[in-house]
Specification:
This protein has three helices and three strands. It has helices at 2-17, 32-40, 56-84, and strands spanning 20-23, 28-30, 52-54. Helix 1 (2-17) runs antiparallel to helix 2. The longest helix is centred in the C-terminal third of the chain and has 29 residues, at 56-84.
């Protein structure tokens, strides 16, 4: 497979450096093992120019930002609903 062969150096680097694959195209993160499995099944068979190697701590930080934003939105809604019971 041409894509898999061209990706091998990136897979090697990711494993060596403890990094994960990220694509800004769909804001998707994969561990090296996950992306390899996806590519073997015919999915996400994009070449190396479509991927960035990033530290997985960035993935967790993104998740925390999303969680915080959801909490703030929930608190806003609770406040809005609570205000309707006062009238």
């Amino acid at each position: 497979m041409v894509v898999t062969a061209s990706m091998q150096p990136l897979f090697d680097q990711a494993r060596r450096e403890g990094k994960w694959f990220f694509t800004s195209y769909q804001q998707i993160w994969f561990s090296p093992d996950e992306l390899e499995a996806q590519q073997r099944s015919g999915k996400f068979r994009w070449g190396p120019e479509n991927w960035e190697l990033r530290h997985p701590s960035e993935y967790l930080a993104e998740s925390m930002r999303m969680l915080d934003a959801a909490r703030i939105e929930h608190e806003r809604r609770v406040s809005k609903v609570a205000g309707t019971f006062l009238t």
